[in-house]
Design brief:
The complex is a heterotrimer. Chain A is an alpha+beta fold. In chain A, 53% of the residues lie in helices and 15% in strands. In chain A, strands 11, 12, 13, 14, 15, 16, 17, 18, 19 and 20 form a 10-stranded mixed beta sheet that branches. Chain A has a 6-stranded mixed barrel with strand order 2-3-8-5-7-6. The longest helix of chain A is centred in the C-terminal third of the chain and has 54 residues. Chain A is elongated, with a radius of gyration of 37 Å. In chain C, the strands form 2 sheets. In chain C, strands 2-4-5-7-6 form a 5-stranded mixed beta sheet, with helices on one face. A two-stranded antiparallel sheet of chain C has the order 1-3. In chain C, β4 and β5 form a beta hairpin. In chain C, α3 runs antiparallel to α4, α5 runs parallel beside α6 and α6 packs antiparallel against α7. The longest helix of chain C has 56 residues. Classes of the chains: A alpha+beta, B alpha/beta, C alpha+beta. The interface between A and B is large, with 35 and 39 residues.
Chain lengths: 868, 220, 332
Amino acid sequence: MERFAEGNGYMEIRNNNKTVEKELAKVYYKKNRRRNEILIISIAVSLFLLYAAFSIASGKIRADYLIDIRGMGTSATISLENGSEEQLDQMKSLAYISEVGLKKTVMEGHYQDKWNGSLVYVDDNAYEKMLKPAYTDIHGSYPQKANEIMFPLRSLQQMGIEHPKLGEAIDITIEIEGKKETKELILTGYYTDYIDPSINIPEAYVSHAFLDDNDITLFPVDKIMAVQSSLDSGEDMERRLYFDIDMEYDSQQVFSENPMVLQSVEGFTGSISIAVGCGLLVIACAFMLIYNVVSISAAKDIQEYGLLKVIGTTDQQLKRIAYRQNTWNILKGVFLGSIVSVSVVFVFLREVLQRLFMQGYGSCDVNTVYPIYLALSIFIISLTTFLATSVALRQVIKWNAINSLKYTEADTKYRKTIIESTDDISLFHMAWRNVTKSKKRLLISSLSLILGGITALGSAVIMTGIDLRNNYQQNPDFKVGILTGIFRYPEKVPDEINDNTQIMSSEMLNNIYEIDGIDTETINNVTGSYALINFDEDEALQPRKNSIDVSADKLAFATIQVVDESYVEELEEYVDKYDLSVDTDSLKNGMGCVLLHYHEMSQVLDDQAKDVIGMPIHFYSLQAYDNSGNLDMYKKAPLECAGYIDCTAKYFPKLSTTSMGNNINYFIMTEKAFQKLEFPKKVFDVSFYTEEGQEQFVNQKLSQIVQRENVRSGQMDSYYLEENYTLLEAEQNRIQTGNVILASLTLIILLVGIMNFTNTIVADHAARKRELAIMESIGLTKNQLWKMIFLEGFCYWIITMAGVLSIGTIIIYILGTLIKQKLLYFRFVYPWKQLLFVAVILLVIDVIFAMSLYCKNQKEPLIDRIKL
Amino acid sequence: MIIVETKNLKKIYNMGVNKVYALNGVDLSIEEGSFVSIIGASGSGKTSLLNLIGALDTPTEGEIFIRGFRLSDLSQNEQTIFRRRNIGFVFQNFNLIPVLNVYENITLPLKLDGKSIDHDYVELLLKSLKLEDKVYQLPNTLSGGQQQRVAVARALITRPAIVLADEPTGNLDSKTGVEVISLMKFLSIKFHQTLMVVTHNDEIAQMSDQIIRLEDGKIC
Amino acid sequence: MKERVIKCLEVTMALSVAVLLFLNHEWIVLLLLCLLFIVLIVHFKLSKEKFSRDLSSISNTLEQILQGKSLQYDSINKDTLLDKIRMQIFRINEINTANKDQIEKERDDIKQLLAEISHQLRTPLANMETYLALVNDEKISANEKKNYIRSVETAEQKIKFLVEKFIVAARLENRIIQIHKFTQDLKETVAEAVFQVYKAAEDKKIYIEIKEKKKIDYMITHDRNWICEGVYNLLDNSIKYSPKGSRVQILLDDTEMFTEISVEDDGVGIEPGEENKIFQLYYRGNNISGQEGYGMGMFITKQIIAAHDGFMRVNRKEQGLKVSIFLPKVGT
């Protein structure tokens, strides 16, 4: 290209003076050892920064993903209960669903008395795409024949088979049409899984053939499982699915969790946009460091190159000489940086992520080397260096020969030619002038420091705010209860499930209460009863009826919960504060009940709800379910409608409930009101705290109780066990890991900022060596010199702190607001301590600088320092 | 009283193979209050002599006595303060402080010693050196001659006991040069200062009381 | 008054703090505070002592000056207020001493001058007296009378010359010299000066030649009388210090900025290093043995030339001296 640019004609042969460029480049390269070293280190550090930041982030996300799916036992975040074949097809046709599979529980089976569980069939898709990724150490394959079976290793161990062998025969006892039969099944595979054994019924996989052999229809399946391909949150996804898929029956539920990636990122930084912002920040830092270094050294080059110009070097040749040198630097820097960053990240990630998996999630199978990031980082850094070099070169080329010779660093950077003087020019004034004399240089050096400070603050805010302790402290250590309750098997009403059916049996409750280690004072029961309501009869129920998407039969299930007086007080406060249309008096004196909904009322319906306050609501015994004829027999005493409340509202006073939402008609009332209905009181859930250190023990006992109860037949629904304490511990670990990562990234950015600052100051000082010597010649003592340099550092500190405080505060407020929108329990705490810490560190750096610069340079005799 | 005395003063550069004898055994005594000019060809050691007397450089051999005190007895800090309170130095290449304007450059030595500014005196200097309308400008906007005059003013502001000037008129035309030297001489008489000027210029040399001629590092 | 109020406040505060601590059994804090208090008091006392010592030191130095003793230049090179003040005192002392010396020197010079004057005047005055007395004597002839009267005239001339010279010198000392410049022919000015020394030159058989380096009209702006006086002084010196039969050359030259008048002789010249000294008032040079003179000529000439914004230059020769006058051509 240059050939053409030189104004030569096409195909002209260039002058054969290439070797001199190479020689000059070599000579200058050797001479500028200091600059080269600084540039190489800067390149290496920037490379490290970029690579580390992105690799660590990726590693963390991947690790979280693995842990999540292993813990959940599946990678599917969507499940549709009791799905039909039509629903399966609908699901498959959705654009935002990437994988669909199904699971069908065939029958119960047990191995002697050592293992009790379900024999389950999952289709190919489900196994390969959703379940397999959550397992490790898979031996063998999924059963194909009717007599084949696949077990998790845990089950095998439970059965006493310590070292399973493929092809081994295992006798499983099953029940067909009431008769128990023992079948010999061949073990075709086993795997290690990580789901919580206490809340899940053990399962073993059987083939489709097994299903057919036993004449069991596939549909409706237990669950249709799906993996989403979009980043919708769980709530949004549920909404979409309810919209796009026809529900077969009223209470058919779709569950959706937040996709793992989103969870990880949000858990880490609060939102994706923040993560992206951080990425940009990192890139900007790297860019600034290199640009700064290059432009500082360019200043010195101007003089040298000026000399060359005087004796006849063209601009083109100068450019080539400069680029050649920088290429060597880039190569060295990239080499150094690559080795350091890859090895450090490799070790670091391995150590840190290991801790995450240590909780019992298998081995850390996360990649710790990311060649693509490395390549990208190298590319970005090289590009930056070239860009910076060319910008700096433009400066050099601009000056003609003589001016370049006479150029001293001090000269060009002034804008001012006139400074109105005040009489009193103290050392502080001079220091301030020196610092602010070049806006550009001030900007570069302080900007990266300010960025570092702001990053530190931001991290502090994230770390203290996302502390999940905020969330979990509000929940009791353990909660046991019924899962969905009556809605699981509505067909069993009223024959097998009626008003007197215990939800949590008193036997179970007693077993629980008797567990040693429970803080009995904290036991809290969610009590009430199931009932029926008649949509056709009560006008008060119309708004509710209209809110349900599925066409309601006239009789629907209702869950009634009894709330105590203190809760009613809380509710009253809430209602008064937010001016809701609820008749709390009616609720208080046992005349009325409140309908709680899960954000299911539109504005119109809400208004309708206001109008129906005071109107009667009738509850019916469960016996009325099949006898639509003679309803009045089963009618209970009427209650007033005290109002509708959305319990997902932000400040709704927390209430421990049983299952809610998704078209479940939920009522709360006082004990007095409940008495009127004459339902036997049942217990839905029980929650409590344990005494210190008793968590493990209680956990064990509870698991046993729950597992036992779950296996018993004739149940309304299965029980769940919620352990908050382990969640807390596990999450603590996660948080700590997250914090470590965040802290290290912050540290690196701060370091870059400090490097930038250091560089600027040192270079500046070198250029001012002469000026300072002059001042010493007219009488500036060492003490005064020290003072002035310290004051300069102090001025920098003032400017940096001003920037951090002003811009930083704004940014972290925005950050906090953004995060709070996603994570309700986020607590914004202004990072005063960290701010102070940062301020002190910056101040210390200034002092150290002043001292080190002051120590140097004092050996040479004064006159030599004054010479040009 | 003898204010400046040197004994066998030598300054040698490049102690290795190619030794350069800037000063090769200089003995002189300067009377207090006199106007001395130092002349000689380029490379004869004039600047080195001035630098040594002004404690800007250290001799390779020999001693310098100011008011009977050995300069080498003072520590570096003490030398700096000694310079501040006793010497006004005009450098050949001005050496002004780039961040300060003319006024501030001139008054800087006073500030360093915490002395108050005599505004009448400053005005006198500014007028005599024709710098009145350049007072607030920065050095990089001034010509060589103007910068040199600022340097002269800076050297005179503290009314030091000894004024050392290295080619103070090099960038000035003859007439202005004579004016500047006349000013310096006038002030040196008024404030009883010892004035030592290195110059090429014969007529300036003849304005002085004593001429010292250096040749090859020695007085001839 | 203010100090007393502050002191009271401090004491009250301290006491209340102490009481509070005492009551709260915070012994350690109380102890530490007491220690702190003691340290502060000691520090305060020491500061006061240092302060008074510094002041005493200054007072001593000033006292020494009052007593006329010579000062010790110790410890003036620290960056402290005390040292700065000492340095300033020393400088003042130096300047004062120098001024006193200067005054004394001038007084001595004046005394010397007066002595000279009286000595110089005495001779012609005495002559005048003598000759006048002789004139009044009836016994002498008319011719002799004429001679005597002429001698009186000579003596009177001499007195006049001396007086005028002294007046000029005095005026110059006080810088009261008035220049009136006109653009006129320099050659004529020079010629006039030559005319004034002609007789003396003739007496010594010294040949004065005037040369022009450039053949132009030397029309420059100058004060004829004063320049003439200046050139006359140079010629006078040259003639005085040249041997009989030698030559004195006046050279006129013209450069872009200056007109040069140089007077060159082959006389005794001056010693190396005297180039500047000869311009000092009353300085007589080392080679003037035997010759009359008051050492004022060169000084006067220099002042005249300076008043013209010109300058002078002296070049020694093996035998003799060349003195040049440079008058500026443009501006004033």
